[in-house]
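QA checklist item 7 of 12: single-chain prediction sanity check.
[x] sequence parsed
[x] length recorded as 214
[x] structure emitted
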Amino acid sequence: MADKIIRVLLVDDHQVVRRGLRTFLEIQDDIEVVGEAADGAEGVARTEELRPDVVLMDIKMPGTDGIEALRMLRELQNPAKILIVTSFTEQRTVVPALRAGASGYVYKDVDPDALAGAIRSVHAGHVLLQPEVAEALLAQEEPGGGTGRGNTLTEREREVLGLIADGRSNREIARALVLSEKTVKTHVSNILMKLDLADRTQAALWAVRHGAAS
């Protein structure tokens, strides 16, 4: 039995998609589906109500779409990790979703075992970025004086930033640098503040763009 059950909320306007996801996820020993929502607004409300660990969020939904729901959850400072579930050709909408605070994305035709792995990965603090989307995010960044802000980082913060860029979770960073998780969290907060970034995804992209990745 898993030490920690990952509580998951499904947000998709197609009932058949939600049913398929639930059917598979309910056979996982360490994953529990705690609820469903049919659009972004309901998804935000249910996320606030149920406090899931991970939300599987569709992008294109009637009314409040997935990107707007992401922005609303960020404003509410909801701690849930958001994993986008999207179609294969939707890179143009995946990029704004990641900028809005998603921890990563999977395609709707994802292999079931890969989906479970993705849920576990974002729950552990990883950022899931496929190369073509990372390149698109970097290409859309405004050129400017971002590099100078990196000079305010301490040597330890640079080490932590490099490991964030590698997709490491706080626990893995703590093990690699022989630090407590609490100390790593403090370093991550300082990095985001000094670089004026919103989340780990932006930190990872900043590291790649400015040569701070390991």
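[x] summary fact logged: The chain has eleven helices and five strands.
[ ] second reviewer sign-off
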